[in-house]
From TrEMBL:
STAS domain mapped to chain residues: 9-121
Gene3D superfamilies: STAS domain
Protein's UniProt name: Anti-sigma factor antagonist
InterPro entries: Anti-sigma_ant, STAS_dom, STAS_dom_sf
GO molecular function: anti-sigma factor antagonist activity
Record-linked SUPFAM superfamilies: SpoIIaa-like (SSF52091)
Amino acid sequence: MSTEGAATLLISSGSHGGAIVVRAVGELDYDYAPTFRRELTQAWTSGTGESPTLVLDLTGLTFCDSTGLAELLWMLRRSQESGTRLVLAGVSRTLRHMLTTTGVLPYFTLSASVEEALQEG
């Protein structure tokens, strides 16, 4: 089977100005939801004890299906349970539409960019 053009999801994280910033690049779908959860859990456990803010940079996200949406809702719930401020940065028009039509947009904090999210925090 050829992997040419195959979708991927890359996750990177780091500490910036007292917040944890996690960057997701690629497709957040059924195939990559386990990777997303594993990487986010690792970033979360390694830094949110000291950081009250987690910024998820979605600027590089090219696709998100219902499974990806479920993962974002998992993050939201986990942030609420731990008292961590969760900010979605760089949300695409398509993802914003999905959040709106499913009725969950009001539960998320959105910022145009990581820089804006860090300034607000």
